[in-house]
Amino acid sequence: MQGPTSQPSNEPQMRTVDTHHHFLPPKYMQEIGDDEIARMLVSGRAPMWTPSASIEAMDRHGIGLAVLSLSAPAVAPVRAGRRPSLARECNEYAARMGRDYPGRFRSFGTLPLPDIDASLLELTYCLDELTADGVCLLTNHGGKYLGDEHFAPLFEEIDRRSIVVFVHPTNPPLSPLPDLPSATFEFPFETTRAVASLLFSGALSKYANIKFIFSHAGGTVPFLAERLARLESREHLREKVTRGVMNELRALNYDTALSVNPFALGGLLRLVSPDQVVFGSDYPHAGEATMANSVKALSCFGLQQGLFDNISRHNAIRLLDRQGVKEQTNVHALSATKRVKT
Q: Do residues 259 and 268 lie in contact, with contact meaning Cβ atoms separated by under 8 Å?
């Protein structure tokens, strides 16, 4: 079935690559329920979403390509035995969106963690059969943060393949303020916990080929960077960070989702090169108004044109580094856009 023809308002606007763009397959929503998502969000309700809604919002705000990921809580709420098949269904749905909307979607695969064996199988399927651009991992899986030795076999394979790991926050094992939505309060701290776990377990030093992207300008990492670096005074921690804490933090990549403001993005750009920053909208969990504000705020942030182009587009293309990515983001005529069958 042919979807609506959509034409961008002008060619230069159709340049942005959105690396933080979520999708909500109907089968996934049926299994986990609206409440699992709603309780995390500021709005208090799960977003209404369809593939065509993403396309229409992207077109209205100059986003040429979105990299899909399954946001928190991913497949964690379902029983352990069901997670591999649900992850597979979500990954195939994302791949189908890529086929049905040529040039508009790529994806980060979902893995059925904390099951390592099943996740290794799904990783291979995502990369080799579905041509995913990497994987999305949550900050913790079953209460284990990413630096835990439990994840070593998975990171060894990801490091061997030199792919992108997009890290998205989720609920902490125990929230001290459960009445506040996790997306506002705990998510930035979750990202920081994940970074600290990877740093001081030695994982960032050991798996140097992995291209990490951390959400929301790294959470509180820019604010706490020097405090983290002070931990090098402890010998057993210094030995885990062979390149030094600040060097490791500056080698990571971060997205702009919910962070294009002087406090968050301003702090991040004091820590890292603009070459380490990619655009993210957090759509649809953050609504279209937030997407619009993020695009506009970045264009008004006072960046030189080359730096703006890097953050909005070129850094993401470099990270994805797959055949055809550059060409796909140059799509401006979308007259053959099709709907995904739900």
A: yes
